[in-house]
């Protein structure tokens, strides 16, 4: 692939042979497909029977996770998430007084799940919401001890919108949901279509139109800004709902597992750049991205080097503007880099990523340190 990463583009969907998202949801008590992950969090909060005044959330998070709580004037307190030689670790005050415990199981690896912590808070009578975005396609995609699971489906596949809320005991209360603004969905569809045309032109050596890339990037940016303000009580759009019924989850899972395995085996020998997780269960884990821990003085330089090779890897996450954290908790924001391993790419693309990383380390005269 000429370019690796960034937003999904329109893809042709072949006849599905394996599971769809809907097949995966057959065993849950009740669920609803919504506009975004943020919509799902807000919907779950509205469904909670009591008034929510406080929430205990991870220090490692993005602004969009926090926004529904901020918009409802809910007091936010943080538990620390840190990287260590043992991988991702949680520093939890199990006696914390809160109405809601918000859990995040990171990147799709069993070793980062919070099932034991979720059960402990549940046993203390605390409402538990688990964000399962990162573990959505893993063999064990949620903890059934949680009261609610929420996810952003659009992070995984090429759909204009898509969020999910699951209630594990009882039915979701009736809430009025509206269709998302057509103008917003149209912007996203146009962006995805224009990117598809750009990728095809690049792959086939055709002449690139003036500002072709800038135009679709501007549309993606416009959509992402729009969903910051338009997210409450919106359902998934019909285009996305129909696509989800056709997308083969089994194929996606196998491709991601294969790609992540190549990255894991190739990078585990390094110290300055190494996998964030210490173990990878190839049969059960399905990564959203493959996260690596990069020494902070190298991270941005490495990311820029990858960009120069047309490899676009995000960081999770930009430091949220609305929070203040302990110094130890902020390190994670400076050291994490998410390598692309999704279903658009194959082993040649993974080798390109590895080669570019090794090229950067060689240029910096960094060996297996």
From TrEMBL:
Gene3D superfamilies: Aspartate Aminotransferase, domain 1, Type I PLP-dependent aspartate aminotransferase-like (Major domain). One of its GO terms (molecular function) is catalytic activity. Signal peptide: none annotated. This is dTDP-4-amino-4,6-dideoxygalactose transaminase. It comes from Dethiosulfatibacter aminovorans DSM 17477.
């Amino acid at each position: 692939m000429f370019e690796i990463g960034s937003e999904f583009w329109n893809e042709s969907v072949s006849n599905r042979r394996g599971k769809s998202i809907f097949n995966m949801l057959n065993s849950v008590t009740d669920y609803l497909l919504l506009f975004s992950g943020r919509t799902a969090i807000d919907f779950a909060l509205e469904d909670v029977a009591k008034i929510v005044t406080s929430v205990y959330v991870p220090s490692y998070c993005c602004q969009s996770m926090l926004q529904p709580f901020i918009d409802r004037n809910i007091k936010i307190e943080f538990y620390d998430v840190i990287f260590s030689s043992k991988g991702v670790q949680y520093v939890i005050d199990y006696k914390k007084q809160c109405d809601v415990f918000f859990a995040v199981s990171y990147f799709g690896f069993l070793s980062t799940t919070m099932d034991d912590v979720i059960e402990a808070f549940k046993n203390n009578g605390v409402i538990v919401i688990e964000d399962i975005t990162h573990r959505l396609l893993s063999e064990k995609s949620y903890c059934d001890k949680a009261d609610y699971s929420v996810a952003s489906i659009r992070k995984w596949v090429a759909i204009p919108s898509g969020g999910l809320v699951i209630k594990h005991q009882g039915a979701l209360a009736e809430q009025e949901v509206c269709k998302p603004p057509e103008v917003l969905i149209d912007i996203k569809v146009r962006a995805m279509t224009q990117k598809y045309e750009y990728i095809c032109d690049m792959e086939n050596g055709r002449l690139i139109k003036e500002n072709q890339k800038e135009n679709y990037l501007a549309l993606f940016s416009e959509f992402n800004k729009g969903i910051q303000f338009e997210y409450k009580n919106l359902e998934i759009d019909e285009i996305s709902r129909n696509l989800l019924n056709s997308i083969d989850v089994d194929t996606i899972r196998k491709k991601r597992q294969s790609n992540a395995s190549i990255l894991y085996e190739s990078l585990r020998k390094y110290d300055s750049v190494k996998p964030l997780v210490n173990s990878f269960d190839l049969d059960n884990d399905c990564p959203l991205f493959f996260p690596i821990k990069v020494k902070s003085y190298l991270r941005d330089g490495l990311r820029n080097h990858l960009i120069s090779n047309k490899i676009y890897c995000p960081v999770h996450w930009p430091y949220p503007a609305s929070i203040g954290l302990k110094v130890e908790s902020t390190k994670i924001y400076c050291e994490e880099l998410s390598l692309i391993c999704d279903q658009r790419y194959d082993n040649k693309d993974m080798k390109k990523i590895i080669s570019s990383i090794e090229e950067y380390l060689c240029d910096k005269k960094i060996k297996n340190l």
